[in-house]
Amino acid sequence: MTAPINTLEGLPENWNEAIASLPNASILQTAEWAALKAGGGWQPLFRQWRDVSGQLEAAALILKKRLAPGLSFWYIPRGPLLDWRNEPLRSRVLNDLSAQARRDGTVFIKIDPDVPTEFGLPGEPEWRENPGGQALLREYMARGWRRSPQQIQFANSVWLDLDKPEEDILANMKQRTRYKVRLAEKKGVSVRHGTAADFELLYGIYAETSKRDGFLIREKSYYLELWNRFYAAGMLRPLIAEVENDTVGGLMLFIYAKKAWYIHGMSRDLHREKMPNYLLQWEAIKTARAAGADCYDLWGAPDIFDESDRMWGVYQFKRGLGGYEVITPGAWDLPIKRSAYALFVHALPRVQRLLRRLRGQP
Fold this sequence. Notes:
single chain, alpha+beta, nine-stranded mixed beta sheet, six-stranded mixed beta sheet, 24% strand, globular
């Protein structure tokens, strides 16, 4: 069982509301995410930085994990949250985190702020650099951070701007995508808004999707806990596609701080020729806009934008919705105890992979 949110040690009052005003606020920095991870062996720590007038300038949900007796590491998922173009604030936050980690005996810190370095792909008309992301990248290099060999979240994604009329969003889709949205409607696909009572059904379809498409998922209890937490907080809208009396697919739409995320999608082989996934995305777009979101993060894109990348097919689907590529630096580590860092990040994973191969495990 995860810890109830109201019993999380050190949780500042109105945490979610406060950090929602910060740049690049993410559901992975919310109290719900902290409570979920507290049940999985992580210790949530909360940090805030304010200016001289008391105004919140930066914040970080730190997840502390024990590695061995006396040794732990910190992970700040999709954080810290701040304006990375602000050099004094940037230095203050990183200096404070480093100093506190050293006092805490931390082996290393891992961060992966959702701060793009570029939008679009080089050579394309829409390509441009993002000053905040470029400043963050320079800061990493100047301070001895290392690009992490263990990426937890996707480094790149596809975003879709929602601050325009629905007809403009539909017109901006690729022609084949727009055709498939209309085809699904004509073929009798309908999309309804689900409730927590649908989560067992949706997990079953998610497990079916995982097996068919060859990706790993966690145990059912994890997703039920996650979905129930965010649904109860009003940050999750489950969408369910149906044909006649058959449930054929689903989509978990997370909404927070004027942003929406498509993180978990599930589909069955049944009625796939009717293109239910396209209508699900169109309903997600309309739902996110109605909830006040101005950006839709489609959560994940290739590391290398080439057909050889395992994400290429999924990327083409997302790109067809009219989105654009978002490139971030990914996860970076700051080693505090260098010998222990080398052991836990490099040597130990190699031993574990060797043991799995010897046992015939994937």
